[in-house]
Specification:
CATH architecture of the largest domain: 2-Layer Sandwich
Number of helices: 5
Radius of gyration: 20 Å
Helix content: 25-40%
CATH topology of the largest domain: Alpha-Beta Plaits
Strand content: 15-25%
Distance between the termini: 11 Å
Shape: elongated
Number of strands: 4
Length: about 150
Amino acid sequence: MGDLDRKILAELQMDGRLTVTELAARVKLSVSPCHRRLRDLERTGAISGYRAVVDPAAVGLDFEALVFVTLRWEDQETVTAFERAVVEVPSVVQAQRLFGETDYLLRVVTTDLAAFQQLYDGKLAVLPGVQRLTSTLVMKHVVNNRPLPA
């Protein structure tokens, strides 16, 4: 990946609604070569999609927690069952498998503390293989949805 491709990615991360003409002007390239590079970035998976970034508070999801999950066992069957089940919980907006003492980190959004408690008790605590959940509340986002470095 060259410098020009990195410039294209940087511009699109800042504004994914740019037209090819606007993008070409920003990276100082004519439209046809810019369009070709853009399609190549999409084809190779460097660009995996386009989406709107929605402010959770604007849609009533004012409560956010990070939930650390420790599994009882880490065999393939338990891991697969847990991962399949956690994908089905809409309030889990991010799930990462970790190295270390904790097995997973879940980022969870809900309307309020009562909704989080209901989710925690009714969905998260009963996910396959869960031994322990530890949660912490998000007070403030200092860096959020930052574009990847160029």
